[in-house]
Amino acid sequence: MSVDQINGSVGLTERLRRRRKELKLTLKDVAEKSGLSFSFISQIERGLTMPSLTSLLALSRALDSSINQFLEQPVGGAADTRHNKRVPYAIGPNSATYERLSTKFPGSVLSSALITEPPGRRTEPMSHEGEEFIFMVEGALTVEIEGNVYVLEQGDSLHYASTRTHTTWNHTDRIAVMLHTCTMEYFGDDPEDAPHIETET
Q: Are residue 102 and residue 183 in the same domain, yes or no?
């Protein structure tokens, strides 16, 4: 059964496939433009797997689209967030759950989220511009960066260049929660629509 069948509607996978066909692109074209593998993109379009947020952004860019055309996400607002007010969301069943932490303002470059990875979930290998920082809040996670393997446990952190091919894997039988910050704009905000953030002096 596909992810879209589980959702009971024409969802993300169908929208991605329709957009690719509108642009008359092959799976190989999208793979080359996004930096993702042909087989992984094919699995997404067939509803067999779901991309991570950063992979979905890479696909959106390859399809000359905003990520918001494929996924509805919370809009950045105040400079602070409250644990009991954040709205968790996921791209699909059995995928990671995200809580947006960062806002957007002119000149800002960081995107930050609290990410909960279910047991056994492995992300697809990818590379893109910028850099990333991971801090483990709960559980453990394996991060592989071009053959270098890092096993992160609660309280551990990792900072690396996103241009290096990387993947993560929750190798445990419990959830893994991490604070993830990167310089890739994966919330799809338009800086011109960003709220004015007042800061104390």
A: yes
